[in-house]
Each structure stands twice: as C-alpha cells, then as structure tokens.
C-alpha cells in the first residue's frame, strides 16, 4: 500500500520535466518569469540571493536547495541591490543543458516539472509557494548525494547511454527528497501546506487512512475522532494545513483517482462510482462535473486525446523548462 505522497505523485501526468546547470560570475542579477509549474534549484558552488515578490531577499549558500510551487516571478543575483536583467535575453545557452552568464563563481542546478492542467491545479494549490532546505539541515545530506549525481549527468555523462533517463529519474528523486526534508522541518503549528499536514501526527493519521480506504463513507465527526480532536478543532486545523475542508478534500482526491481510471476503456462508470463510495452513477457524475466541468462520459470520450497531449512538451529545450519558458 502506497503512502499518500507516493500515491499522489504516481498519478500525476507530467507534460514535461527537465534539468539544467546554471553558471554565473561577477556582478549579476537575473529575473525569471512566473510559471505554473513545480521548480527546484540548488547551489553547488558559491552563493547567491533570491528575491520573491513581497519578500525580503534570502541568501543562498553552497548546499542550499529551494523548491517553488506554482513558481512566481523571482530574481537570482550575486547581491540583492543589483538591478535585474531579464534572464531569457542575456543568458548564453551552452550544450548540452548549461546556462551561462559571465563566469562560474556561482553554479546551480535547476529543474522544472510541468503537469497536466487539472493535476497542477490540485497539487500546486496544496504546496507552499517557496521552501528552503538549508545545507545545515540533516536531511540535506541525501540531497547533496543526488545533486552530485545529477551534476555529473549534466556535465561529464551527457551523451552517455541512458543519460536523459538517468537525469529525469534523479530529478524525480531530488524533488521527493526535497519535499521529505521540508516535511521534517520544525515550524509553527499554523504552517500551511499539504506536506506539513502529512507530517502532522493527527492530520497525517487521517490523511493516511483516507488514502487507504477512499471508498468508505466519512463524516467530519468520524475523522475528528480518528484524529483525537474535537469536531470544530479538527475541521479548522485540517483546512489550515491542507487548504481544503475535510470532505472537500476527499471529493477532490476521489475525482483525481476517477480521472486517471477513466482512461481504462474496460472500466464502467457505474463500477468506478461504487468503488469510490458513491451510491449512484448520477451522484458520481455530479461530483465529477463540479470538479472538472464535464461529465465522466465526455471525459472518457476525450481521454485518448488528453493522453496524447500529456506526452507533448510545450517547451523547446530542457534548459528552458528548467529555468524559464520558451521565447
């Protein structure tokens, strides 16, 4: 039985994923545009600063890793007081997947994951906008090992047999390790985010149970009892951490399962509705339409086209996926 985190990521339809190495030297500041995808970046050599809208500049040191969900516009710089240039207009593209500006005093690895629209809306809405895993955190040791392997694939191993596949798998591992490290960080009890909810002893217990038995009938009171909390206290904490009310979350996750399973032409909608805990095909269809804006049957008819779209990358190169969109 998969844990909730593994279950969700196993169903994500990734439209494109890529990694690239970033090198910069001298005095520099580069602005990267907002993009609705999941990003990770790590500092291999030197140091830099990141500035996000509405936030004070944050210093990044060697070994630091950061993740961004629904990535906002951000600036990476050698110092926080340098005027920024648009990255897409000044970076040199070096083969195979290297972005270069001025020198090699600072070296970073970046990666980007672009999900099918409905997946992105569900997942990115539950993740924190910015996560910093400092090099001093114990879990960062595993990240450093993966980053070393990934850097080797992006430099000395490029063109070797299976290099693209290894790079993609290492990027997947790095993403999961980053999420795991974030979940282990000690933060305030009101810190929002689905990863934090999984790490919470009470809410995490409930989430694990829901994902193991999605077809069961649940009430907020039953879930609160499972968590060992009052009904009102549980409902408030669940929403604060997860971003959804308890029953709303169950409905949305059921619809993610349904959306994936509708690709199977041998599965009837009535059977799927029953397996997901709906008393009738009509009740299931209404819930599905509320989430996706179309009926299950209409989605089923278009599933082949959607599967095809999932395989197409909207970007022209791996470096553009990893750091900025195609021009």
Largest sheet: 7 strands, mixed
* Count of distinct strands: 12
Give the class-level CATH name of the largest domain: Mainly Beta
Strand content: 15-25%
User: Unreliable segments (pLDDT under 50, ≥5 consecutive)?
Assistant: 304-321
- The CATH architecture of the largest domain would be Sandwich
Shape: globular
Count of discrete domains = 2
Mean pLDDT: 82
Oligomer: single chain
What is the radius of gyration? 21 Å
Number of helices: 14
CATH superfamily of the largest domain: Regulatory protein AraC
Pfam families: Cupin_6, HTH_18
Domain HTH araC/xylS-type: 204-302
Protein name: AraC family transcriptional regulator
Organism: Thalassospira marina
Describe the structure.
By secondary structure, this protein is α+β, with helices and mostly antiparallel strands. It has two domains: 4-185, Jelly Rolls (Sandwich); 194-308, Orthogonal Bundle (Arc Repressor Mutant, subunit A), CATH 1.10.10. It is 46% helix and 19% strand. Strand 4 (48-51) and strand 5 (58-60) form a beta hairpin. Helix 4 runs antiparallel to helix 5, helix 8 (220-227) crosses helix 9 (231-242) and helix 11 (269-275) packs across helix 12. Pfam families: Cupin_6, HTH_18. One of its GO terms (molecular function) is DNA-binding transcription factor activity. This is AraC family transcriptional regulator. Residues 204-302 form the HTH araC/xylS-type domain. Keywords: DNA-binding, Transcription, Transcription regulation.
């Amino acid at each position: 039985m998969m844990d909730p985190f593994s279950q969700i990521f196993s169903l994500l339809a990734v439209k494109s994923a890529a990694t690239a190495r970033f090198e910069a030297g001298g005095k520099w500041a580069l602005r990267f545009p907002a993009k609705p995808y999941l990003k990770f970046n790590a500092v291999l050599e030197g140091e830099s600063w990141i500035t996000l809208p509405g936030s004070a500049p944050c210093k990044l040191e060697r070994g630091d890793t950061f993740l961004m969900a629904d990535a906002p516009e951000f600036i990476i710089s050698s110092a926080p007081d340098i005027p920024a240039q648009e990255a897409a207009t000044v970076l040199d593209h070096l083969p195979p997947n290297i972005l270069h500006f001025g020198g090699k005093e600072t070296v970073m690895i970046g990666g980007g994951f672009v999900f099918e629209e409905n997946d992105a809306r569900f997942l990115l809405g539950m993740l924190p906008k910015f996560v910093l895993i400092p090099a001093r955190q114990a879990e960062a040791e595993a990240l450093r090992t993966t980053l070393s392997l990934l850097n080797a694939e992006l430099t000395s191993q490029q063109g070797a047999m299976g290099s693209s596949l290894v790079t993609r798998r290492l990027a997947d591992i790095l993403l999961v390790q980053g999420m795991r490290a974030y979940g282990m960080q000690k933060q305030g009890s009101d810190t929002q985010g689905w990863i934090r909810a999984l790490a919470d002893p009470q809410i995490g217990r409930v989430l694990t149970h829901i994902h193991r038995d999605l077809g069961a009938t649940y009430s907020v009171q039953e879930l609160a009892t499972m968590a060992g909390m009052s009904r009102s206290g549980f409902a408030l904490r669940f929403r604060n951490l997860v971003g959804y009310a308890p029953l709303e979350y169950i409905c949305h996750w059921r619809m993610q399962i349904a959306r994936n399973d509708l690709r199977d032409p041998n599965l009837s909608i009535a059977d799927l509705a029953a397996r997901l805990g709906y008393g009738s095909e009509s009740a299931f269809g209404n819930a599905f339409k509320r989430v996706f804006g179309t009926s299950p049957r209409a989605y089923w008819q278009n599933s082949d086209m959607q599967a095809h779209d999932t395989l197409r990358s909207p970007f022209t190169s791996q470096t553009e996926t990893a750091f900025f969109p195609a021009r």
